[in-house]
Amino acid sequence: MKNWGIKKRVLFVALLPTILIAISIASYFSYTQIINLENSLHERGRLITDQLANASEYAVFSSNIDILEQIFNKTLDDMNDIIEISVTDTSDTLLITKHNPHIQLKSDSNANHIYSFISDLIKEDTIKFHAAIKTTEIEINDYNESFETHKNNSASNIIGHISLTLSNRTTREKQLTSLIKGAYITFFGLLISTILAIRMSTGVIKPIKRLTKAMDDIANNRLDTRLSIDSGGEIGSLEQGLNSMADEIQSVRQNLEKEVKQATASLTQTLDELEIQNIELDIARNHALSASKIKSEFLANMSHEIRTPMNGVIGFTDLLSKTKIDSQQSDYIKTIENSARNLLTIIDDILDFSKIESGKLRIENIGFDLTEVLNSIITMFTPMAYNKNIEIVNHPLPDKIPNHLIGDPTRLRQILVNLISNAIKFTSNGHVSIKLEIIEQTHDNIHIKFIIQDTGIGLDNINKQQLFKAFTQADSSISRRFGGTGLGLVICKNLTELMHGDIDFESSPEQGSTFWCSIKFEIVPTDNNDTLAINCTDKTVLIYEDYLENINATLGLVTKLGPKTLTITDHNAIEDITRQNKIDLVIIGISRSKLKNNDFISEISKIAKTLPVKFLTIISTFSENDLKNIQSTGLKNTIFRSSPESLIANAISNIMQGKATINTHGTHDLRRTVKRNFNHIKALVVDDNDINLKLAKTILENSLIQVSMATNGKDALDLCSSGYFDIILMDLHMPIMNGFKTIEAIRSTNNPCKKSIIVALTANASPEDKQNAFNVGVNDILIKPFSENQIFTIFEQWLLANANAKSDHSQPSGTETSTSPYNQTAAIELTGGNKSLADELLAMLVLDLPNQKKLIEKIYLSNNLEELRHVVHKLHGGAKYCAAEDLSSSAGKLEDIIIKKDKLHLESAINLVYDNIEKLISYYNEMSK
Amino acid sequence: MQQQGYKLSQQVPDDIFSGTILAFIKKMKRSIGFTLAFCLLLPTSILAKDYSLLLVSNADKTYVNDISQNLINNLADSNIRIRTANNHNESITDQYDLIVTIGSQLAHEALQDTSSETPVFSLLIPEQIATHINPGNSRTWAAQVIDQPFKRQLQLIKVLIGSNKKTGVILGPASSVHKRDIERTSKETGIAVNYEIIETSDMIIPALKKALEENDIILSIPDPDVYNKNTIRGILLLTYRNKIPVIGYSKSYIKAGATAGIYSTPDQIANDATKHIKDYFDNGKKFKQKIYYPDSYSLEINKRVASTMQLKNYDKDAIIKQIKSQQ
């Protein structure tokens, strides 16, 4: 019904009541008529019977049957629905019976009647009526004193009975006729009502349909649709309203279209202009990109092209300095070397900035040792700081900082180097300190804040705003005074942001500056930072430092070890305090200002000799001479302040535990020249630069290495095909055939040098280049310009390991002392005869081995072969440098397997490394006993 | 109401006037005529106490009242003091010289009281009843019957249709006792009378048919088994169809369809009764005869029927004169 149209609804409303009323009335009147006819029949029957009874009175009274017959015949003639009339007397004796002879005839005559068949459906019935025939009472006595009054002769006045049988056929026919007529009347009434309703509904619906159609037309955008107003009343109003609405809509539409047209035209014009601008911008962008690309390529090329000759300059300067020259010449050579290195730094900065600008700088995400990075930086800058007579203070790491993190150690180093370099550069006295804080730490991540604080010239607010902008420095005078490109902090800022960190600083003029950067790292879960877990809680340490920042650093370090501490800044109080307290160790910190004060040192020495307490002297110098001078005064236990934290901690622990010797060095001297006898080694140097070829050849031949040279890959490949080389130094960027293709060819064919050590030489060591180099089979990478030490470090790392491996293969097992995982002789030789250094290096290696093992296991499970190769490579190098030959050998093999992606032997190779790690730890523990 | 009225009379029979008229009217609530009659009697009772008469009548019937009233009126100037009662009461009957009853029922009741010796004169009694009443040996009783004497009726027939015509009479169980009287009268008058005697009412039609076939006129003799309100219509229709006149015995009968008849009106009955009562007292309290037939009578002719019957003499006075002349 909901979906009915208005026509249906109108018809429904109009017809339903009419139909109901018509049917109801027709039914009621038909029923009433039927009942009336029925009652009439009965009434008529009774009346006829009564009349016949009255009429029959005389005939019955007089027993005159003829009269009865006459009466009945007449009656039957007149009333053809009377079937039978009979009369009995009071004794029920039948006086007369008369049948209606017309009944049958009547029935026959009705046989073809239109209603006969319907009539037959109605059961014909007969109705009998009875009446008593009574005499009419007539009083004939004037005085009611006659005999009958007391004779009790009340004789009944009934003299007989009459019985009338009446047919109801006629009544039934009348009833049926009434019904049919009623039906006809109802039908025609309804028909007329329907016609009228349809006509009326049409009269209403037609205008509404017109309205609806007009609405649809308008809705379908035929806005010129109008209705002829030929209706009156509300419909007429609606039609007028619709027309007005259509006028309004059309008007609005036209206005809108006009406005849209105008807007479209304007927009089209704007779009055209924009298109032109876009095209122009695109052209400009392409030009800019092209220019940027050209610039980047130019810078890269320039970098490469500058680095290559700089390699020669620095290399040959270094070689020159080792010849017989006088002091003036030596000074000139140092100037040349410094200038060359500064130039290299400038080039590196420009190159990095260029990469950052072009978005080509990629941040690595590899495992690294944070302590190692920090220590190497401290070691690097210690000479620079001490040369300026400023303290470089390395605050101990917070307890919870893990050593092994995942991040980009190269870029972290670059940032810290830059900040520390600047700090030292702009500080003329006082100190530069390095301190780490944990901002936030979770199970998987750590957010570390690196704080570089100095007591330098500081910055005012105006200069602060310029500091992180490219090619700007605090002011022009700084450039003149301190030099530099002004790119360092910009690079630091960009690198920090690339590592999802932040960088900022606080500074006041003449008060110094505090730069800090915060960087997030992932934590290697297996890391166990327990290197300083030395139990000295029952001891008491007296600390003397005369420089405040050093006090904080030393106190922090000692506190981490657990002993009670007493701190003084006046050395005269040492004796009294020591005598008054149970002091287990006195730490004497000698700053740069006191280092050359011989009186002070003598006093300290004297105190140390008089007191029955062990002394440890920490000195702010990197000079072996200074060390020896102090040791010569009796202060045997002396250690460089720049030594790694773990080394100083071990020294404290050893002294308090009564061990005699300590290691004075943090690491090997960077300037130490390692000269080895590699006379049995054959090397091939491939470089398109003749100077570099000559430099490499000179350096290598000084170590009695047999050197062959090639200027391109093709020549190199030819040489390799004709003979075996133990090591190949391969420049990656060369004409004719570059290093990548050459190495790939060497590794992929049955070339005699297939298993040779290949070290890539490159002046552009981007992560992609490194990765590509390792992918084609490079064992290690040497960045130009390389130093003699760097060359030989790599030679030692790879060739000794290779030699050990060979000896393992050549000698039957058990014939030599191969049962020992540690070759002490080789280790001492590797450390230039410094046994204590060799021992210390071994101790550090062994201490780190459990973590290395867990790291390998974790990375192996994560199926990251590249990172695994990196870790194993590091282990390989460390074991080789410590002369842990078995471990070095197995790690080397594992590295080869990883490079070859030989997953079949990977697990067994890892297990072999694990075995050797366990062996070495066991061996070390046995030795320590 | 009757009891109360009666008790008042009983307590102060000589001082009936002690009750006021109004009280009487209030208590008795009888007809005004009756009350006036009572008032008229009052001076007589005071002046002369020769004879007392108790008139026992049923006031419910108009014709009884008419007779009573006429009777009281007729005796108003006589020395007969009339006391009325609605029914017979034996305890007081002895105080009267004569009890006059109107109607069969009251006559029967009065005679049933065997303890009373007061003579009874019964008015308005059918002859058949009067003939069957036995008042006892010592009781003086006479009746004035309703029925007209046969002679008078036959003389009527004679006046109407002549003496050479035959008269049919149907006698039932009650009226058959009059057969001899009729025969005697027939002889006296010279009018032939045929008898049809029936035992039950079922026999009426055949008897009537026979009578109609054999006679020229039918004389109706009152008999409840022959002529009653149920049979009369048929009888009259039958006679009418046969064009045989019927002589009725009451005004109602004539009105119902009988051709003619003689009868006595209440006034005539009262007048006759007055005469007989006076004669009784005048005659030393003795009735001349036991049954008195009405001396006064009236004639009624149903002219439409008579016309149908082709009777030409409609002059009632002339007819009555002729009848009386024959007597």
Walk me through this protein's architecture.
The complex is a heterodimer of chains A (929) and B (327). Chain A has 929 residues and is of the alpha/beta class. Among the domains of chain A are: 6-136 and 157-195, PAS domain (Beta-Lactamase, 2-Layer Sandwich); 362-523, Histidine kinase-like ATPase, C-terminal domain (Heat Shock Protein 90, 2-Layer Sandwich), CATH 3.30.565; 540-656, Response regulator (Rossmann fold); 811-929, Four Helix Bundle (Hemerythrin (Met), subunit A) (Up-down Bundle), CATH 1.20.120. Helices cover 58% and strands 15% of the residues of chain A. Chain A is elongated. Residues 105-111, 149-154, 666-675 and 807-818 of chain A have low confidence and may be disordered. Chain B has 2 domains: 2-145 and 267-292, Rossmann fold (3-Layer(aba) Sandwich); 150-263 and 297-326, Response regulator (Rossmann fold, 3-Layer(aba) Sandwich). Helix content of chain B is 46%, strand content 17%. In chain B, the strands form 2 sheets. A 6-stranded parallel sheet of chain B has the order 2-1-3-4-5-11, with helices on both faces. In chain B, strand 3, helix 6 (104-112) and strand 4 form a beta-alpha-beta unit. The longest helix of chain B has 17 residues, at 266-282. Chain A binds chain B through residues 57-58, 61-63, 135-151, 153, 155-157, and chain B through 61, 63, 103-105, 108, 124-126, 128-129, 146, 174, 201, 205, 209, 222-225, 227-234, 237-238, 248, 250-253, 256-258, 263.
Quick summary:
Chain A is an alpha/beta fold and 929 residues long. Chain A is built from 29 helices and 21 strands.
Helix-strand layout with pairing:
The complex is a heterodimer of chains A (929) and B (327).
Chain A: H1 6-61, H2 65-78, E1 82-89, E2 94-99, H3 102-109, H4 116-121, E3 126-134, H5 147-151, E4 158-167, H6 169-219, H7 233-321, H8 327-358, E5 366-369, H9 370-387, E6 391-394, E7 404-407, H10 409-425, E8 431-441, E9 445-454, H11 461-466, H12 476-482, H13 488-498, E10 502-508, E11 512-523, E12 540-544, H14 548-561, E13 564-568, H15 573-580, E14 585-590, H16 592-595, H17 598-610, E15 614-619, H18 624-632, E16 638-640, H19 645-656, E17 682-686, H20 690-702, E18 706-710, H21 713-722, E19 727-731, H22 739-748, E20 757-762, H23 767-776, E21 780-783, H24 788-810, H25 824-830, H26 835-862, H27 865-881, H28 885-899, H29 903-928
Parallel strand pairs in A: 6-8, 12-13, 12-14, 14-15, 15-16, 17-18, 17-19, 19-20, 20-21
Antiparallel strand pairs in A: 1-2, 1-4, 3-4, 5-7, 7-11, 8-9, 9-11, 10-11
Chain B: H1 2-11, H2 21-28, H3 32-47, E1 51-56, H4 62-75, E2 80-85, H5 90-93, E3 98-102, H6 104-112, E4 120-125, H7 127-132, E5 141-145, H8 150-161, E6 166-171, H9 179-189, E7 192-197, H10 204-214, E8 217-219, H11 232-242, E9 246-248, H12 251-256, E10 260-263, H13 266-282, E11 291-292, E12 298-301, H14 303-308, H15 316-326
Parallel strand pairs in B: 1-2, 1-3, 3-4, 4-5, 5-11, 6-7, 6-8, 8-9, 9-10
Antiparallel strand pairs in B: 10-12
Helix pairs in contact in B: 4-13, 8-9, 8-15, 10-11
